[in-house]
Amino acid sequence: MNYYKYLICITLSLVILSGCKKDEGPEPLVELDIQAPIDDEALVNYLQTHFYNYEDFENDPDNHKIEISIDTIADDNEDKTPLWDQVQNKIAELTDANNITVSNKMYYLVVKEGVGEKPSSVDSTFVTYKGTLLNKKVFDVREELPIWFDLTGVVRGFREFIPELRAGTHTVNSDGTYDFDHYGQGLVFMPSALGYYAQNITSIPKYSPLVFSVALHKVNPSDHDNDGILSIDEDPDGDGNPLNDDTDEDRIPNYRDQDDDGDGTLTKTEYDRDGDGVADDDDSDGNPDYLDADNT
Known about the structure:
By secondary structure, the chain is of the alpha+beta class. The protein has helices at about 5-20, 30-50, 55-60, 155-160, 265-270, and strands at about 50, 70, 90-95, 100-110, 125-135, 140-150, 170, 180, 185-190, 210-220. The chain has two domains: about 30-220, Chitinase A, domain 3 (Roll); about 225-295, no CATH class. The strands form three sheets. The chain has a six-stranded antiparallel β-sheet. Strands 1-2 form a two-stranded antiparallel ribbon. A two-stranded antiparallel ribbon has the order 7-8. Residues about 1-20 have low confidence and may be disordered.
């Protein structure tokens, strides 16, 4: 073989081989205790360098049609009050794969509280919203026509925040459309673990903290299993989170289980046989019948 042709073949082979990467398998998951402080640092920096249009709300306090907008503190906006000086925070505890509890801090701001009822964390809510990344990229928006959200089916940070707001009022127009007014509005800034964490979502990179602007228009208290007990009240351990209560340990939480104690008698039947509005406890052991498998 010609020397130069031989050299070219060897060179091409090296290029091809160097371009082939060994299959290293799926990317390992970043542990919660590592990601949490990274996200918090990013959120704090964002809150310290951004502001919302609070002056619009101060100048026209009775106008509930003003939308929340966020901008960077720079140039003509150098004198604006940073979000950091206005937000409150809340800690959400999560358990990782090693059964270690990790605290995740979310930040929120109630811009207008609203005039109606507050939802629980498991109610159905009629909302408009906009979701953005910290780089201001919008990944989801619903600002014109509200949509019903069952709060048991949304990300944890959204579910934790919405109960801070109150619903508003509405009127029905002659054409069947609605006008909404006096509703609660606010912002929530959540770490990735209270959002989508490591999920593969096209518009949201892994481990992305999220920002939501939300308006709460209506609330519908939920009874997911139609057993006559509101879902928020199916919380025997009293921690405010019905999602983790499963009396009969059948992997169906009580708020979705029509037979909470698994004794073969429906909760709806056992709850209040005498109709006095109080849960029955026939054997007077302090455990109501619908949660007591020993008393059918």
